[in-house]
Amino acid sequence: MTAPARPSAHVVMLLSRPGCHLCEVAREVIERVAGELGVPWSERDITGCEQDALEYGDMIPVTLIDGVQHDFWRVDEARLRAALSS
After folding, report:
1. Superfamily covering domain 18-85
2. In the β-sheet with 68-72, what is the strand arrangement from edge to edge?
3. What is the pTM of this model?
């Protein structure tokens, strides 16, 4: 008998903007890792919020885990997997 999947203790947010090629790569990594681990994730366009644009504009894409900045510019798959597995 297989144990039921436990609900994720984490939530991932990708901060992005339209036309960002690094955002596309980050999205693919997050989608793959979060999907494998059953972690919910979402994406927010920083151009819709002046505060986001000021705070994160030079770092896009930015990955937040549970509201805390985890990565920017590139998503390291092994590092993301380790953070979401804890």
Report:
1. Glutaredoxin (3.40.30.10)
2. 41-45, 12-16, 62-65, 68-72
3. 0.88
